[in-house]
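Need the bound structure for iron/sulfur cluster, inputs here:
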Amino acid sequence: MTSGEVSEQSERLLKQLSESGQRLIGYFYPHIPLELLMAHDFMPVLVWADSTVSGAYEGSLQTFACSFARNIFSQRVRDQLSVLSGFIFPGNTCDSLQNVGDIWRVRFPNDIFFRLTYPAGGAGRAAVKFLAEELRILSKGIELKLGTGFSREELRRSADFVGRFRWAVQFIYAARLINPDVVSYSELAKAVRGFLSVPSLDSLATAEALLSKVQKDMDAQGHTDSVEKLSASLLERKIETPITPEETDSPRIVVLGGMVEPTDIAQLMESTPGGSDSAIVFDMLSFGFKTVFTDPLSLDGDPFEEMARATLKAHLEPTQEGLQKRLDFLKGMLSNLSIDGVIVCEQSFCDPDQFEAPSLENSVTDSGIPALRLPMDPEMSDKSRLSLRVQSFLETLASG
Amino acid sequence: MSDEKPYRRLETQALLQQIAFRHGLEAMNASEEGNLAWVTSGFPVEIPFAMNVFPTYPEQAGAIIGAQKIGPEVCGYAEDMGYTQELCSYAMVSIGSTDRPDDVPMGSLPTPQALLACNNICGTVLKWYDGISQMTGAPVYLLDTPPLEGDQTPHHREYVRSGVERLVEFLSTTFQTSLEEERFREVSELSSKAIHLWTSALKECQKSPSPLNCADRFLTMAPVVSSRGTEHCVEFYEALLEEVQDRAKQGIGAVREEKVRLLWDNIPPWFALRFFNKLAAKGVVFPADTYTHAWSGAVEGTDTRSILDAIVDIYSNVYLNKGLDAKVDKMCQLIKDFDLDAFVMFSVRSCKRYSLGQYVSKEIVTERTGIPGVVIEGDMVDSRLFNEAQIETRIEALLEMVT
Ligand code: SF4
Ligand code: SF4
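Answer from helper R.:
Posting the output first, comments after.
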């Protein structure tokens, strides 16, 4: 299933939900406490780039806005997002989304618009306090503009609901590092996408069904303990112990990048001659590992501070301070997880991706592992060229 | 001979070279002594200056590379390292010249011991300095000033304040120095004096004919960016203001025959400053621009605490750290105060923070002020993206509307 097809499916679902009275709120930057929005009785909907959409931004945006931002703007121009009651734009993440948010407000003055500004500095306590206050303001804004208050009871329920999803996919991510054949990357990516697009009981059930299968297989292969330990170290971002993965026919590849679509990467790998998506043993993408490995929400302290703490503890995006930490984590992965090759994806005109790519590439090749840089856009406009490059990379890995 | 030119050269410009030379020497010495920091253009330099850490600006070096018309070549060095051509060309030439200083006529900036980035101008600066840090080993300090939505809120102020305090700690430990109140007061007084002189010179351009044109301001803003907080910076602006006031009093314009007054939005194409001179021949002057008006907030306070508070306020509220509404308001205000006939928006491919939004702000500014505008495309350093003939045609069309 391509990302376009997954989009269509989610769109249909969202429409049904909206018709049945479920209130939906859209967001673009994946590091948002879903629990907060659910505590306001909203279903948080991650707005994805739609690979079938092109154009429709020209009167408002220059072509050097990142291709993701252009894509979502085009979706809005084409009225594809009408089921959403409001939109949450991030602030202080990247210049493209910062400014596209402003343009959005002018072009679509009737949209209910919120801005959640993130700290970019790793300032510890000060950053948590800042984000907590931003979340409090967002919460008040939702209450004021959309009329539903914040409920602690709902927060508790949603913390459990989201926690179950995360736990399930974290386990699967870790399991695939030990045996990537246990479930395909594409199935995992679809489960994540399904939940982030429509976090319903159904999409949770899909993720948990996948988990049951994986747990059974891992148990049968005697890996349960190591999977659990690995999952915990991934959550702490400390990969210090080598693993012994199952032998497979494919090379073991990690995909790095930002807001590129995991299901598109899976599809690209599957459609490449000689490729199989089980070759992707792990991703470090914004809509994958980086979001999924967020701490469970603690309900002990002030809820806004707890949400801020969990959000900021997740794997840092290149839009934040901490390149060295990211590189150290990558090094830990490369030396302990038997990685044969790395693909570094770069969204077209994405400053954070494109600035960080050379450092990532150097760090990988310094470890003696081949790396492939893959510039792309959500429309996968140059798919055959991308496929050719992946193919020749796979050949390099095979001959190495 | 020069009298026949359609524009008048400023006498004060001669002093600029001396200041640039002095700044270069001081930076070199500071680097040798282990006291050099690279800073971004919106960084509160009053703090490093007061702590005897010498700040120098890669953006300014980028502008010089642009003006020397070697931008594409030096960007190419960064491209060879794996950076894409789509990135900010200031960052590209900075990375490129750091990697291959011997291939750049003026060399690279002296090696920094710290990289001080403030993201009040864009998010790019952090990524750029991260790259330089990988090359030089100098640590990056990010002063995080999240973009403002409207007025600065208490939690924003508190967060930036804690960042400023950590900056003082960072400089203290990195450079074994301290922030002494007397010196801090002295530096901030000098800084605010320079800014007052500079803004007074800008204000003189409200008169007609305007005593300064765009290119004059782009060149003479260098010291306020690089050396505010020093005596010689104040001296330079005293001389500039005197010359500008003198011109204004005598009705001497920057352009010999002023006919049309335009607003310039964004960074200039450094490699094509003659573009403004060509327009001067048609009587076109740019009495105001959003770029040089960005340095307008003076840091004022009586003790360390109040100066730090002023820094939190001023550096959070810079032009590029505010949303589209604030940009539009500023342009409309400039159009009104400087009595302008039309506006030119330079869509700079490098700079998303400055440029994305220009299509909509163009519509709003016209709607509010009733004057026409045009968007032209290019870059400030990378001349490969500047189609001069096409730009001239667009400006011609604009001029036809107002003359
Ligand atoms: S793809 Fe990059 S530039 Fe675009 S919105 Fe995401 S982080 Fe920003
Ligand atoms: S992106 Fe813009 S503001 Fe940032 S360094 Fe480049 S030119 Fe300056």
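Comments: Chain A has a mean pLDDT of 94. The first helix of chain A runs from residue 3 to 19.
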